[in-house]
């Protein structure tokens, strides 16, 4: 299964559940998965687990010492394991880390995001305003989710070119892209260093937790990208875990005119002279640096 398959399975599951109060009560999800939720004091770094009784009933146990947003995500993550019938692979790697994580765990995270921030409810609640820290914090409060989970969801479902990048210890680990960016073949290579011209790079260099928003060049972030176009970057650094996240966005009018193949890969352009047609090439109107 790929990410799109997981999203469709999650949305089908959500469609059969009463989500009218899901921001406060995840019980309907547990009931639909034939599960019971229990909270206990668990070890540091242990978010939760599921056991299945001979009767077929599942018991989801979550760490009562973790923040409520983390507990809610863990519940939905464990529901995903049950519904998707994917075995758990909880290792010493932290649940917030993409480094060396088993693919089953990443897929269950995708499923959990769909449960915590249901597609229909999200589209109804997301403000039409320009992306900002205020918009993200509003959505996080509405759906009772963490800032990283909210920002990733925002980027994935944005109607504009938008991306959310997770970085750990100075390296890119994961990038969620909106449909427009995927269609344009925009690519941020995983395991690459944080771009030196980015806001994320600058605030991480301070060594302190911080949040800043600034305009930077698009080609700083996207591989093999047209030069001279700008984007906005909202970056936040968490010093304790050496984790950095960035939300990137710009107007659709500022997308380069590119050709991609059926795999979504940008087609290389011929660098030779343009054939003369007798027509003047008018400016595209795109904002350039």
Characterization of this structure:
By secondary structure, the protein is α+β, with helices and mostly antiparallel strands. It has 2 domains: 3-121, Arc Repressor Mutant, subunit A (Orthogonal Bundle); 135-254, Beta-Lactamase, CATH 3.30.450. The chain has 9 helices and 8 strands. The chain has helices at residues 3-15, 27-32, 68-84, 103-116, 119-125, 133-143, 147-157, 179-183, 199-205; strands at residues 35-40, 48-52, 58-63, 162-168, 171-177, 210-217, 230-238, 243-249. It has a 5-stranded antiparallel beta sheet, sandwiched between helices. A 3-stranded mixed beta sheet has the order 1-3-2. Strand 7 and strand 8 form a beta hairpin. Helix 1 (3-15) runs parallel beside helix 4 (103-116). The longest helix is centred in the N-terminal third of the chain and has 17 residues, at 68-84. The protein is globular. The protein starts with a helix and ends in a 40-residue tail after the last strand.
Q: In the CATH scheme, what's the topology name of the largest domain?
A: Beta-Lactamase
Radius of gyration: 21 Å
Order of helical and strand elements: HHEEEHHHHHEEHHEEE
* CATH architectural name of the largest domain: 2-Layer Sandwich
Which ranges are low-confidence, i.e. pLDDT below 50, for 5 or more consecutive residues? Answer: 270-285
Strand percentage lies at: 15-25%
Q: Give the tally of β-strands.
A: 8
Taking the alpha carbons of the first and last residues, their distance comes to 42 Å
């Amino acid at each position: 299964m790929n990410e799109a398959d997981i999203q469709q399975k999650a949305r089908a599951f959500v469609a059969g559940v009463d989500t009218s109060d899901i921001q406060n009560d995840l019980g309907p999800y547990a009931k639909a998965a034939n599960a019971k939720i229990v909270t206990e004091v668990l070890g540091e770094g242990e978010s939760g687990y599921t056991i299945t009784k001979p009767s077929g009933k599942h018991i989801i146990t979550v760490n009562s010492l973790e923040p409520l947003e983390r507990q809610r995500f863990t519940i939905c993550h464990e529901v995903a394991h049950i519904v998707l019938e994917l075995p758990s692979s909880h290792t010493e790697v932290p649940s917030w880390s993409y480094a060396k994580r088993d693919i089953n765990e990443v897929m269950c995270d995708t499923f959990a995001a769909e449960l915590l921030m249901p597609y229909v409810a999200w589209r109804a609640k997301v403000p039409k305003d320009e992306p900002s820290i205020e918009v993200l914090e509003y959505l996080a409060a509405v759906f009772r989710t963490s800032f990283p989970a909210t920002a990733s969801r925002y980027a994935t479902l944005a109607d504009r070119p938008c991306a959310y990048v997770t970085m750990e210890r100075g390296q890119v680990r994961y990038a969620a892209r909106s449909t427009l960016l995927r269609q344009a073949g925009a690519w941020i290579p995983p395991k690459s260093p944080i771009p030196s011209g980015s806001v994320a790079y600058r605030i991480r260099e301070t060594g302190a937790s911080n949040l800043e928003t600034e305009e930077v060049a698009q080609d700083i972030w996207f591989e093999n990208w047209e030069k001279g176009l700008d984007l906005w970057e909202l970056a936040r650094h968490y010093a304790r875990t050496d984790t950095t996240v960035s939300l990137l966005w710009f107007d659709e009018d500022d997308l380069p005119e590119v050709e991609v193949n059926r795999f979504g890969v940008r087609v290389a352009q011929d660098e030779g002279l343009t054939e003369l047609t007798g027509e003047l090439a008018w400016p595209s109107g795109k904002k350039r640096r």
